[in-house]
Write a structure and sequence with these properties.
With about 160 residues, this protein is an alpha/beta fold. It has one domain: Rossmann fold. Helices cover about 40% and strands about 20% of the residues. It contains 6 helices and 5 strands. A 5-stranded parallel β-sheet has the order 3-2-1-4-5, with helices on both faces. 4'-phosphopantetheine binds near residues 7, 35, 72, 100 and 104.
Length: about 160
């Protein structure tokens, strides 16, 4: 079974990697799919995010990263995927996720959405908070892979505190 794990991944976090690891265990193939979204101004380009994801997911042979545009259901159909994987952290994620899952089901009733929860340690983690903490010079150890941290540091040009 092939699953798509779609998102913005700006930048990828340890929460994303936790979910990828869980997804890679239950699906034969997992396609991590970065949305090319011209409306959203991102910190990293799609190519930069692809490179970061490829670097961080190399250990899982059944995982690969790609970019997509257009409808997720169309991309899933093109890839021969039967499922979409999404992570749910707190109850606050649920409404947005349910709306997307229902809409995607309306658009393609054969595509299933599968929700998984990350490790509790990552339940309050988001790319948005990582960007904010990074821009204010806060410590990010444990939240993002070291390779992503150095790219963030380079992009924002701020020194991180080493204490936690
Ligand atoms: O990480 P995000 O930003 O929460 O991911 C949102 C994403 C990429 C899953 C969603 O915006 C998406 O699937 N966009 C593709 C366009 C589409 O299919 N829209 C209808 C979704 S119901």
């Amino acid at each position: 079974m092939i699953a798509i794990y779609p998102g913005s991944f700006d930048p990828p976090t340890n929460g994303h990697l936790d979910l990828i690891q869980r997804g890679a265990k239950i699906f034969d193939e997992l396609v991590v799919a970065i949305l090319r979204n011209p409306e959203k101004t991102a910190l990293f380009t799609v190519d930069e995010r692809l490179e970061m994801l490829r670097e961080c997911t190399g250990q899982w042979k059944n995982v690969h990263a790609e970019a997509f545009d257009g409808l997720l259901v169309d991309f899933a159909r093109n890839r021969g995927a039967q499922a979409v994987l999404r992570g749910i952290r707190a109850v606050s994620d649920y409404e947005y996720e349910l709306q997307m899952a229902w809409m995607n089901r309306k658009l393609d009733s054969t595509l299933e959405t599968v929700f998984m929860m990350p490790a509790a340690d990552y339940s309050y983690l988001s790319s948005r908070l990582v960007r904010e903490i990074a821009s204010l010079g806060g410590a990010l150890a444990g939240f993002i892979p070291p390779s992503v941290e150095s790219k963030l540091r380079a992009r924002l040009g701020v020194k991180f505190h080493s204490h936690r």
